[in-house]
Amino acid sequence: MIISKQTTLYCIILEDKNQNDLLLSWNDKQNPSILKKILR
After folding, report:
1. 1-40: per-residue pLDDT in tens?
2. Which end of the chain has the lower number of beta carbons within 10 A, N or C?
3. Is residue 1 a part of any domain in this protein?
4. Letter string b/e over residues 11-37, b meaning 16 or more CB atoms within 10 A of that residue's CB
């Protein structure tokens, strides 16, 4: 979910509980290779 040009939210949708869990908030100006390591 993109909330601005600078920040992206990554979340997981739990359909059985009807909720979204926020995994992390990411500053898009940071190095994308770090994000790839986190999301593995």
Report:
1. 777 888 988 889 999 999 999 888 899 889 999 988 888 8
2. C
3. no
4. eeeeeeeeeeeeeeebeeeeeeeebee
Question: Does 2 fall in a domain?
Answer: no
* Domains: count for the chain: 1
Query: Is the pTM above the cut of 0.85?
Result: no
Direct distance between the N- and C-terminal alpha carbons of the chain, in angstroms, rounded to an integer:
18
| 12 assigned to some structural domain | yes
Q: Which domain holds residue 25?
A: 7-39
